[in-house]
Write a structure and sequence with these properties.
alpha/beta; Rossmann fold; six-stranded mixed β-sheet; binds guanosine-5'-triphosphate; GTP-bd_M; GTP-bd; nucleotide-binding; cytoplasm; GTP binding
Length: 397
């Protein structure tokens, strides 16, 4: 991915290997992108990836995700290279996790708890902290039986009743109690936020949406002249920020929110629904795309799916293709026999415009390219909505 690396050098970096399954019809460059993204997640969490393991399969194995042969190969490598953790590119079921842990005898993470871990480290507000903790406990609950394997190891498989079982039962009860407590707390926070939103003036609401790391916060900072945290890591933003922005004489509210990602853990989406209220209640969406990312078309798809889940797919949307300064024309498809002409940015632009009706602008937020056109477009949209909603309100113009 060629991303710069910023590690916390005070800590010893944990060394990881990645495991992915290649399903039929998946192109090699897609597989590479998926694992690159997983590596970027590991990097964001503070680890370093030593090796990728992949296996071609119809679908992940129900018991062990990959085949037993592949698992042995991984085990040999983990042992020889003293690897700290093995990260799987999908959510593992409780039984998969148990089986794999027994085989590999090393820390196992899956895509979901890796993302949850990053979120936990990022959460700032009470709302985000509560949401992440809730998602983590819900993830943990069906996997509590993992404790058995530790007990099994310690006790050599004998004496499984008694303290072990009680321990799990009381742990489960504690977690369930905590879950309902967190849900109550979230409800309260939601109610407070709702009142806050209702008390806001009748300004038009615009929300920045998009895949993680595409430049949403950078654009927010540019438009609102604010200082929202932006960096080259995944999920720099977790909490929604709302700012009042004025373009020419038209004020509106702009919100910056959590980025989306492929295979976002189900619990997490549920728990973050209220954070995404700003998106659901927005009048206009600005869908930001990182056009310099090799997989940006997949990312657009993921974002649209997530918007669909939120019931926000049919909103007035402006498409912003950001990072045009970093766009590199892809090489002729090296994995394919057929020759495909390299796609320049202007080729892509033409074909996109021919097939899509949403207003679209290609910009560079960091180099300030085409920003005036973008602002003009936004201004026109906001003004149009404002005039139709408040026909007699001359105050603002
Ligand atoms: N080359 C280039 N980099 C950019 C541009 N816009 C933003 N970036 C960089 O992209 C990285 C991510 O930017 P953010 O604004 O944090 O992205 P985000 O969409 O808010 O990311 P999350 O909050 O993590 O979902 C940062 O390192 C930015 O400096 C651009 O136009 N060109
Ligand atoms: Mg951000």
């Amino acid at each position: 991915m060629g991303k710069q690396k910023t590690y916390d050098t005070a800590l010893k970096q944990e060394r990881a290997v990645l495991v992915g399954v290649i399903t039929p019809g998946e192109k090699p460059e897609q597989t590479k992108e998926y694992l690159d993204e997983l590596a970027f997640l590991v990097d964001t969490a503070g680890g370093v990836v030593e090796k990728n393991f992949t296996q071609k399969m119809l679908k992940p194995d129900r018991a062990t995700f990959v085949g037993t042969g592949k698992l042995e190969e991984i085990q040999a490598y983990v042992k020889a290279e003293e690897i700290d953790m093995v990260v799987f590119d999908d959510e593992l079921s409780p039984s998969q996790l148990r089986n794999i842990e027994r085989e590999l005898q090393v820390k196992i993470l899956d895509r979901s708890n890796l993302i949850l871990d990053i979120f936990a480290g990022r959460a700032q507000t009470a709302q985000a902290k509560t949401q992440v903790e809730l998602a983590q406990l819900q993830y943990l609950l069906p996997r509590l039986t993992r404790l058995w394997t530790h007990l099994e190891r310690q006790k050599g498989g004998i004496g499984m009743r008694g303290p072990g079982e009680t321990q799990i039962e009381s742990d489960r009860r504690m977690i369930l109690e905590k879950i309902s407590l967190l849900k109550e707390r979230l409800k309260l926070i939601d109610r407070q936020n709702e009142t806050q939103r209702k008390n806001r003036t009748q300004l038009i609401r615009v929300a920045l949406v998009g895949y993680t790391n595409v430049g949403k916060s950078t654009i927010m900072n540019m438009l609102a002249k604010s200082e929202v945290f932006a960096e080259n890591k995944l999920f720099a933003t977790l909490d929604t920020t709302v700012r009042k922005v004025v373009i020419e004489n038209v004020p509106f509210l702009l919100s910056d929110t959590v980025g989306f990602i492929r295979k976002l853990p189900h619990h997490l989406v549920e728990c973050f629904k209220s954070t995404l209220d700003e998106v659901r209640e927005a009048d206009i969406l600005i869908h930001v795309v990182d056009v310099s990312h090799p997989n940006f078309e997949d990312q657009i798809h993921t974002v649209n799916e997530t918007l669909n889940d939120l019931g926000a797919r049919d909103k007035d949307t402006i498409m912003i293709f950001n990072k045009i300064d970093a766009y590199v024309t892809p090489k002729t498809d090296e994995y394919n026999e057929e020759e495909i002409a390299p796609l320049t940015l202007s080729d892509f632009k033409k074909s996109w415009m021919a097939h899509h009706s949403s207003p679209t602008i290609f910009i560079s937020a960091t180099r300030k390219e085409n920003i005036e056109e973008f602002k003009q477009l936004l201004y026109d949209k906001v003004k149009a909505i404002h005039t139709s909603r408040y026909p007699y309100d001359k105050l603002l113009y």
